[in-house]
Structures
1.
Amino acid sequence: MIQAYIGLGSNLENPIAQLDRAIETLKKHDSLYAFRVSSIYGSKPVGPQDQPDYINAVASFKTKLPPIALLDLLQSIEQKQRRIRERHWGPRTLDLDLLLYGSEEIQHPRLTVPHPYMLERGFVMCPLNDLAPDRLLANGKTVAEQLHQLDTNDLVFIKEV
C-alpha cells in the first residue's frame, strides 16, 4: 500500500459542493483506504485575478493503484463532475492533483510527482499540514517547516470536513 496525497480545488459552480461531492466519491472508492481530508481553505487565485477566489483541501489515503491508474481515477471524477477549465491557471469547477505518491519521484508525460508547484503554494501546504505536519518532503524539510516559510496571509479557514 502506498500513502498518497491529493489536492482538491474549485472556484466555479458552488465550489464547496464540488469538493464535498468529490470527497464523497473518493471515500466510496474500493481501492482507497484510510481516507482522511483536511479542513477546507479559501485563497486568492494563482494567475489571472479576474476570477473568483478558490477553495482548497488535501486528502490522504492508502492505495494499491499505480500512479497513472490513480491519475486516471482523479481525472474521471473531474469529468463526472463536468470539469470546466477555461484557461491555464484560470477558473475551474474541480481540480484534483496528485501531490505525493509515497516517497516516489515520478516524471511521466502525464504526471510529475511530487507536484511541481506544491512547495510554493500555501493553499496546498496549509491543508497538507493539517494531515501530515511531520512528513518529510523532497527538499529535506517537513511540511510544517515548509509552510512556515510561505506567505499564507490570503488563506481563510472555510470549514472542517
2.
Amino acid sequence: MLEHSLDTEHGVLHLSPQGRLTADDFKSVAEQIDPFIEENGCLNGLMISADRFPGWSDFSTMVEHFRFVRDHHRKIRRVAIVSDDDVLSALPHIASHFIAAEVEHFGTAQRSEAANWLNAVTAG
C-alpha cells in the first residue's frame, strides 16, 4: 500500500509506502496528481518517506512503477527522500542518471528540512 496526499498549496506530493507496492497504488496516485499537473504544469516536489523500500507485490507492479516514473519524472521539480535506510540514502545518486528532477536525501530527523527544501521551489 502506498499512502499519498497532495499539498495543493505548495504543489507537493507526499508518498509513504506501508507494505509491498501494487500496480493499483500507482494508478491511484496518478488519478490524484494528473489533474493537478494538467492544470499547473508540474509538481513542485515529491516527498517520499519510508523506513525502507518495501518492494513490489509482483513483476507487473515493478513495470508499472517504472512506467509511472517515466511518465511523470519530467513533471516534478524536486524529490526529497526522507529515510535512514542505507539503500534509500543512495537513491539520489542513482536517480540523478535517470530522472530530470533534483533529488536529495534527508534523514528521518530532517523531515522539516526536506519540506522546506521542497516548498522553496514555490518561492523561487
